[in-house]
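Why do we care about 3D structure at all? Because function follows from shape, and shape follows, mostly, from sequence. That is the central idea of this module. The next example makes it concrete: a single protein chain, its amino acid sequence, and then its structure expressed as tokens.
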Amino acid sequence: MIDLVLARRDEALDWLAELPAHCRVQLCQSAGAVEDPHWPTPTWVHVWRTDTGAAGSHLQYLQTLAARIARGESPDLDPAGWTVFAPADALRQAPALRAQLASPALWAEVQPLGRRAGSAGAAPRQAHFCPVTLAPLGHVDADAVQLAESYRRRHALASGENLLAHFLDLAGLHGLAGQAASADLGIAAPEGVFAVRNDRVLALLHAAPDALARLDALLRSEALYRPMLERCWLHLFALPFVQLQPLPHPAQVPAELPIEVPPAMARVVASIDALLARSAPPAVRRDRPIRPLPSVGHTGLRLSAIDELRPAASARLTPAQHGAGPAWWPDPSQIGQVGARLQAHSLG
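And the structure:
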């Protein structure tokens, strides 16, 4: 059995005439809405006093079931059956919904049923979004940007605050808020059409009746919370959040290990070292220290070598040759001051 829970204001219901026989309609209608002659049989009509959108209608339906359980009554849900939540114009949002209702065995325990517009053969898609910014993946959603900005201003939240976790905390769903805070992505049904197996519906009704009441109070207080709840539906029924796999860490470089050298190789290396030591050239010995050469005037010339050679040169000259240079010696007037000093050293 499939319970098709439809949130209606004044949408046409003629498409319900072709539902499979195992479907029954739970019509959640706002007060003052016009009745439709195409209501199928059996149809349970729940009339709400206030209009809190499709999310509010679905929430009030769950509260009705929770109230039955609290009174000790049966919620009339087959644990092996399904509940499909959708707006009353679900066929426009999910063109292949009638065909999908005929084969619920193909569904997951929590199953979005919306399809992309104009792609009747496409499989149902999930809308992944960031729980911090509410932005969807793959495209820019101006409504999501405006919703995030309005929610942050309403609660004076910092830009990096996890909005979905904050909303779930407001509803008293602290465990689910903790999961959202550590998640990378949330999952929503983009067209608001999704199926839940009834055992998960019953688990929510037994575990969180107070949270349902708090969510209802939030939706009645401000319209801002309605799209927040629409992003939480699948996770309220225990669909896990998405956590991306962390990047792999680089392999640890092992510490330098000692190299085990075979004994034969060690002997070869030792013999090569000994051979290189014997073939090294001897160190140069300097028996006589090198005397620094004195400077000569401002020219920076050092003439110590000339001083050493001058006595020997003078001894070879005859007295007549003293005072006169060789034949090739230039005229002192042409060699400048440095040349004259060199001549005086060599011949004086």
